[in-house]
């Protein structure tokens, strides 16, 4: 039988949401553990320049910002565990987390596993990621003043972000594989009326070229069966964002896209299970919104533990920390 | 006729919510203005030690943190205006802000005027504010390890925070002016079962004493007509938090306590008017949650402007910036 380790809060994911939850939990007198399977710090660590986390006015890399958050969690004694969570179970109200190495019991669980953009899967995409290839106009639009950019996609997000990018770029191509948009009509009307936006229909990017930074793309028009090269300084891919929900999809209520549904306490439909950060069904996915979610989830989890652990009808006591 | 100044977003309040909104708006290619009537930085500036804004692991004062956020807003060119807003009006979809000096037009408005705790109004309260007198257990509980504290109040917040404080303090008095709690029954049950909590009924604090830091309080029991001195290291006042809603109470939909009701975009019931930070009806009021609100409100305002400003049926064009 595997040894069992006991915590107040098990946090799955070490991005801004997970670490913020760990800071609030540990400083709030609870014993949290943060599980991280791969690269510490989450998706933001692939970002070269973060300049919109309020208070950090000197531009830093995503890794540097997350290192500061890790030091913050360390300061209050939050435990960080580099094991991959394989499954989540429940025994009554007690939560069971099984990793590739051990079994952990926790009174509450915060799911902060994040999300990731769907990739274009074309040559050059990985090479130029962060060097002209972006998946977030809110994050990176500012860097494209008077430049030429291409947005890939035809849904609400793609078209909204194309319009947002016209605040900076001198020209915005919207490259869509169909001959009509999926975006709602009013957004389409605004985009069609915008003189900086040019739509390229029935087309897909075939390859991305450049030296150190993106310089051009080859696109293929399916209906005309023609290739064409376009000079661009940046590419914003809006072909979907995918929740990292493998651990919870059979258990937690999700929206149509697979993001976790939560109430204003960040509580999911399962008692004592919270979600925070990009995994949550919400409008704006940024470091600051993720960190806010994490703080709220940890604060809520503390209240939940206080209310539930003395209840005679639950077996939450089996999750009790050793005295 | 007063001269009119035109902006994309008028932000009322310069705390974490207002400055975060300014950072996101200015970096998002919009022209924002932040109005601040009194002390720059909002309520957090009275705090001596902020150690739970994720990423800032070195303890700093509230004023220092807000100075960093101000530099951040300055970096992207957000305008900050030290004028007191006297009234808010609308002309169609265009928002009118009148200060003690000028009139401003803006396409959107973000209300970030904050909230403030109801005070005990007893001698010593102001002198020891931040030196033993606190209005936020989530913020300051950590500083009271193995100390004796008193919580004043009898509602859900007072009792929940008293239980939270037992994670740190060796003894928690709950001083309530009535002989029963207003908190919901299950919270009462948990609190009564907690051996660290002692209830002092029918009583009010009369005075707070100490040298540099709180050392004791005098309480008066109304039903027994008796005074009594108690040694305490800290006092947490939970007798109400009051929204700074004077500018919006006649216009924006509010909850029963007077906090602004918003949707997930931070949009109020009035088209193009957003709320962010402590003024919002929500669970957890912290710097991190306020900053998140501000970012979301600015992001949403940009989308709203894009959709609405080209609409022939609105007069939002009268808010257009000079070319």
Biggest interface: A-B, 55 and 55 residues
- How many runs of DSSP E, i.e. beta strands of chain A? 17
Straight-line distance between termini of chain A? 22 Å
The whole-angstrom Rg of chain A is: 22 Å
The major β-sheet of chain A equals: 7 strands, mixed
Structural class of chain A: alpha/beta
Helix content of chain A: 10-25%
Shape of chain A: elongated
Number of helices of chain A: 6
Topology, please?
The structure is a homodimer of 323-residue chains.
Chain A: E1 4-12, H1 16-27, E2 32-35, H2 62-75, E3 79-81, E4 85-91, E5 94-99, E6 103-111, E7 115-117, E8 133-134, H3 137-140, E9 148-152, H4 156-165, E10 171-175, H5 185-193, E11 197-200, E12 203-210, E13 214-221, E14 226-231, E15 234-237, E16 241-243, E17 273-275, H6 287-308
Parallel strand pairs in A: 1-2, 1-6, 2-3, 6-17, 8-15, 9-10, 9-15, 10-11
Antiparallel strand pairs in A: 4-5, 5-6, 7-16, 12-13, 13-14
Helix pairs in contact in A: 1-2, 1-6, 4-5
């Amino acid at each position: 039988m595997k040894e069992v380790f006991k915590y107040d809060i098990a946090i799955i994911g070490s991005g801004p949401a997970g670490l913020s939850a760990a800071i609030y939990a540990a400083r709030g007198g609870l014993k949290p553990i943060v599980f991280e399977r791969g690269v510490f710090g989450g998706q933001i660590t692939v970002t070269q320049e973060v300049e919109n986390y309020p208070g950090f006015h000197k531009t830093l890399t995503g890794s540097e910002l997350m290192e500061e958050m890790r030091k913050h969690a360390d300061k209050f004694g939050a435990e960080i565990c580099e094991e991959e969570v394989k499954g989540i179970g429940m025994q009554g109200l007690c939560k069971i987390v099984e990793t590739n190495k051990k079994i952990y019991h926790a009174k509450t669980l915060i799911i902060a596993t994040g999300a990731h953009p769907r990739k274009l899967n074309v040559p050059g995409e990985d090479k130029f990621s962060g060097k002209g290839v972006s998946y977030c106009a809110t994050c990176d639009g500012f860097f494209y003043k008077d430049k030429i950019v291409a947005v890939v996609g035809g849904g609400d997000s793609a078209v909204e972000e194309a319009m947002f990018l016209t605040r900076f770029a001198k020209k915005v191509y919207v490259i869509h594989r169909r001959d009509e948009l999926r975006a709602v009509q009013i957004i389409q009307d605004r985009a069609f009326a915008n003189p900086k936006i040019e739509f390229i229909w029935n087309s897909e990017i075939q390859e991305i070229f450049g030296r150190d930074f993106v310089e051009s793309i080859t696109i293929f028009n399916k209906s005309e069966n023609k290739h064409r090269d376009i000079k661009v300084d940046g590419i914003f891919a809006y072909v979907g964002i995918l929740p990292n929900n493998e651990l919870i999809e059979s258990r937690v209520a999700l929206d149509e896209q697979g993001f976790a549904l939560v109430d204003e306490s960040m509580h999911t439909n399962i008692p004592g299970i919270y979600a925070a950060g990009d995994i949550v069904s919400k409008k704006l996915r940024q470091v600051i919104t993720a960190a806010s979610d994490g703080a709220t989830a940890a604060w809520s989890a503390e209240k939940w533990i206080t209310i539930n652990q003395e209840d005679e009808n639950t077996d939450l006591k089996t999750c009790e920390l050793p005295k």
